[in-house]
Each structure stands twice: as structure tokens, then as C-alpha cells.
Amino acid sequence: MGMHMARNLHKAGLLAALYNRTTAKATALAAELGVKACASLAELGAASDTVVSCVSADADVIEVATALSTALPRGALLIDCSTVGSDTAQRAAALLLPRGIAFMDCPVSGGVEGARDATLAIMAGGDEASFDRAQPVLKALGRAVTLFGPVGMGQAAKATNQIMCAGIIEAVSEAMAFAHAQGLPLEQLIETLGKGAGSSWYFVHRAPNMVRGSYPAGFRVRLHAKDLGICHDMAARFGVALPVVERMLREYAELTARGFGDEDISSTYRLKSELFERTNIMKAPPLRGDP
User: Fold this and answer.
1) What are the DSSP calls for 99-167, one per residue?
2) Per-residue pLDDT for 291 more than 60?
């Protein structure tokens, strides 16, 4: 997603330099876009007044904030588009505050397609002044940009989104396994139900993966499992266990154990289809007396 986001910042005339921990990726993208590839976060920070980061885990966000806290100039802004815990966003902001550097947590939703097409939904946490300043950057990346409150509230909104994604992809996988068992023409089913009341982004864009039996990474199983772990922890602070979250964590653990952790989350269809295979009715003829 980060590469697509960098390309869209470049299209908007906002990208001066970039950095990636994999040097070859940074060098190739910098050559494509005609910008500078920095050898370190310190070099990137020294050349910037605004930085956009998108990394995988909570520890990564703290590492980025720590490195940039001594490199960015006073008055700079770090916009973090990662999905992490609200408390991690607040820790990152606290690291930067003494240096006069503003921080915003701005996690995104919309998948690889949204990153590519600059149609991401962006959930922001931070102060009003930083949000106003970040507008050109955020509007270059997404279509729906909303400030939900102070630092950490963007992550709370994203956690809400991730719970919804879990329930929807489970329902889509279950429905498609059911449809397959009924012998329905699945491509026609997607075309028709994609226009019905039960449709969703995941149904339209990921049910075709289930028909093909191929799950190229749009949103990896292991990353959604990480996000749902965050949701689990946030709910646990209220003494609550969320059934959808707990169920999908178990399913993702099973997929990961089988070696499917880097597949798209639509691969949960593998488990749903097995429900029918185990009862030997996937292609069984109707029972005598059935209409």
C-alpha cells in the first residue's frame, strides 16, 4: 500500500524523498518517480517538514517516531497511516512533543485498490491545527478524510472498521461455501448479489478469489489477525470479549498454522468450504424425496 500512496503523493506534487527498510524497494521507486531515496530515517527527517509513514506493527511506529524525533525540524508533522493500538499512537506523539513535532494517527481503509486509486477512507486523530495542515496530503491519498478527536481516536475508529471487516469476510466466505454446495453458478451469483441488499465491498472484490481458489494478498491474514488482537485488547479493558473477533482470531490462527498467513483474508473460504466437505455433501445428489 505504501508504494501506491507514495505514487499518489508524487502525482499531487507533494513527494520530495522516500525511505524503505528494504533499500532495493526505495531505490527502485525513487528512480521511477524521480525523487531522492534516503539511506535512513534520519536523512529523510532532515530533508522534510512533513513525513507520512505506513508500517506493519506497533514497535515499528515507535521506532519511526524515535528516529524522527531527533531528525525532523521543530514544527514538523508526522502523519502515521499504520494500524496500531491507540496507546501506541499516544506514545509516539509523546516522543515527538518535547521536540515541537506534531503527530497524527491516520490509519486507512480501502485495501490495495484504495491505495492505488487514492480512494482510501482515512480516520484521523490529532489536533485541529495539525489536521488542517495535513489536508493536502490526506486528500492526495483518500476520498473520505475525517478527524475523530485527539491522538489515538483515529486508531479507535480503525479498530471499529477491522471488527466490521472480520464479520463481513466471514459472512461472505460462509455464504460462498454454501452457494458452492448448492451447485449455483458462482460468477453469476456474484454479479447478481453484488447489486443486492446483502452486498459489500468484500463481496464484490473478494468473492471472485473464492471462485478462483486464489488469494493474492490484498489484506494479509497475519496482518488482520494482528489488528484483531488490538481490538481484543481494547475490548478487554472493558471486560468484554467480542464473539466475532474471537472467532476470527481462531480461524486466522488455523490458516496461519497451515501456511496461509500471507494470503488475503478471503482465504478463510478454505475453512468454510471444508464444513461441507467434511459432511460429504459438497457434490452429493439430492436425497430421495427431496423436491
Assistant:
1) GT-EEEE--EESHHHHHHHT-EEEEEBS-HHHHHHHHHHHHHHEEEEEE-SSTTHHHHHHHHHHHHHHH
2) no
At 37, which amino acid appears?
A: A
Average pLDDT over residues 140-157: 98
Could you say which of 25, 139, 158, 226 is catalytic? 158
First to last CA, the chain: 50
Q: Please return the burial class of 132, using the count of CB atoms within 10 Å of its CB with bins 0-12, 13-18 and 19+.
A: exposed
User: What is the C-alpha to C-alpha distance for residues 176 and 74, in angstroms, rounded to an integer?
Assistant: 53
User: Nearest to residue 140, comparing CAs of 9, 45, 278, 1?
Assistant: 9
* Residue 243 backbone zone (phi > 0: left; psi -120 to 50: alpha; other: beta): alpha
- Can you say how many angstroms the Cα of residue 249 is from the centroid of all Cα atoms in its chain? 16
pLDDT (average), residues 81-93: 97
Pairing verdict, β 77-80 and 102-105: parallel
Locate cell 532495493: which residue? 24
Instruction: Name, in order, each residue with C-beta under 8 angstroms of 46's C-beta and a sequence gap of 6 or more.
Output: 71, 72
DSSP 3-state assignment of 84?
coil
pTM of the complete model beyond 0.85: yes
Domains of the chain: 2-150 (3.40.50.720), 156-278 (1.10.1040.10)
CA distance 152 to 88: 8
Angle at 43 between CA 41 and CA 47, to 5 degrees: 115
pLDDT digits (tens, 9 = 90+) for 101-118: 999 999 999 988 999 999
Burial group, residue 222, by CB count within 10 angstroms (0-12, 13-18, 19+): middle
Residue 139 a catalytic site member: no
Are 233 and 137 in contact by the 8 Å Cβ rule? The answer is no
